[in-house]
Design goal:
Number of helices: 17
Number of strands: 0
Oligomer: single chain
Strand content: under 5%
Structural class: mainly alpha
Order of helices and strands: HHHHHHHHHHHHHHHHH
């Protein structure tokens, strides 16, 4: 295996282990905190509020991430971020309302660093010819995290209607150990410096922290990035929905009987199955898909999400995101349909994200740290907004928001993709120009 491909593989494995722990916790957080509140009347922590804090802080600190990377490189940023994820997970062993919200703020700072660092490291180990393959491969490895933790939770929660303290301790301790192994792998990643022989995207220039911040701000104001930000915003809303709201809605639907809590873990597993399948298709078999461009894949993701939203609307009660409910849905709630929608949500999400990674690492390779920081900034703002309104808006209203944003986000991505393809065709006759980076236009 070539060195740069090996770096991408180990990056994916390290991130997969860290997020095996975190994504599982975020998937079951609302359910666990509801059980803690039943045992301790002084505990007032809310899962949606916790996640909203995470993504709000995440959004703010994204603007500082390029500066941090310019000083210490992507490995330092990823290490700091991974440690904050481990800290957040371990705080569930000592449930206190103030500690939950403090840890939520701390992990928000780390999330900005780990994701921007990851995007930069991926880009530095890719070329225009390999970025789509590497993006899909990384995404498939990352989303295997949905299997590891959620499969464990599926068996741990089997037959339980209340998540007792012993079960919580076992689950959190195991997830913390998995995250720790992921941190070790990320620390062991080989360094890839900008402009060195290890870096194939040498067009990216080394900048100081102030210049990196200015570059991010300037890139954010370009036409292409503003249009893509609509797509980023949609992915943030749907990420929050399937990672926090949808799983909770399944667990709170009493029509599923005693298996409701167990279905929360199974839902996460099938979301992961969809994510991994999509990443494998567009990574391992990326060359067969990229010949038609990125837009057909994103349109396909939109269709899968559209089908999922419609079935969820029919299958789950409107009040299911809030607390256990005996309300009936439009049809008899079916566990099979609920899990099928989990798969559709995951596969559609992989369609969007693999192509976003491909575009950012290809079109914006000259400033990948800033591009990924803007992506995660916009996505995290959307996620914070989703978790804030999730505690007030019913399921049907949330699905309506998702439907509207999915349409707009798909249209803007396709528009930018078509515009970039036109630029490439114009530059094809001139080999010198075709080798240069694609420059963006300011308003």
């Amino acid at each position: 295996m070539e060195r740069k491909l090996r770096n991408v593989v180990f990056l994916g494995i390290g991130m997969m282990l860290v997020f095996s722990a975190f994504q599982t916790i975020s998937n079951i957080e609302k359910t666990i905190l509801d059980s803690i509140g039943q045992e301790d009347e002084n505990f007032k922590g809310d899962g949606y509020t916790s996640m909203a804090i995470i993504y709000a802080v995440f959004a703010v600190f994204n603007w500082l991430a390029p500066s941090v990377i310019s000083l210490g490189g992507p490995k330092i940023a990823m290490f700091y971020g991974a440690v904050t994820y481990l800290f957040f997970i371990l705080t569930f062993l000592w449930p206190k309302t103030w500690l939950l919200y403090l840890a939520s703020g701390i992990i928000g700072t780390g999330a900005a660093m780990i994701w921007t660092g990851q995007g930069n490291y991926l880009t530095l180990n890719s070329t225009p010819a390999t970025i789509s393959r590497n993006s899909g491969l990384f995404w498939a490895l990352l989303q295997m995290s949905m299997f590891v933790g959620n499969l464990f939770v599926f068996f741990q929660f089997r037959g339980l209607t209340h998540i007792d303290v012993n079960t919580r301790t076992v689950v959190i301790s195991v997830l913390g150990g998995i995250a720790a192994v992921g941190i070790v792998i990320l620390v062991a990643l080989p360094r890839t410096r900008i402009g060195s022989t290890d870096s194939v995207n040498v067009i990216e220039q080394q900048r100081g922290p102030v210049e990196a911040l200015k570059s991010a701000a300037n890139l954010f104001l370009t036409r292409e990035m503003i249009l893509l930000s609509v797509t980023f915003f949609y992915t943030g809303i749907e990420l929050s929905f399937f990672s926090g709201v949808y799983s909770s809605a399944i667990g709170f639907t009493n029509a599923f009987g005693e298996s409701a809590k167990q279905l929360v873990g199974l839902s996460g597993i099938f979301i992961g199955a969809g994510e991994v399948l999509g990443g494998a298709l567009f990574g391992i078999l990326g060359a067969k898909f990229t010949r038609w461009g990125r837009d057909p894949i994103v349109i396909g993701g939109f269709v899968f999400h559209l089908a999922a939203f419609f079935v969820i609307f029919l299958n789950l009660p409107n009040k299911s995101p809030f607390a256990p409910t005996d309300d009936e849905a439009f049809i008899t709630s079916s566990a099979i349909l609920a899990i099928l929608c989990s798969f559709l949500l995951g596969f559609g999400d992989s369609c969007f994200n693999t192509q976003i990674y491909s575009m950012l690492g290809g079109v914006f390779a000259h400033d990948s740290a800033s591009a990924f920081a803007i992506f995660k900034f916009t996505q995290s703002v959307a996620a914070a907004i989703c978790f804030f309104y999730a505690s007030a808006l019913g399921l049907h209203a949330q699905l309506g928001i998702l439907l509207f944003l999915s349409i707009i986000g798909t249209v803007t991505f396709v528009y930018v993709e078509w515009a970039e393809n036109k630029k490439k065709k114009k530059m094809e006759p001139n080999e010198d120009e075709s080798d240069s980076s694609v420059q963006t236009e300011k308003f």
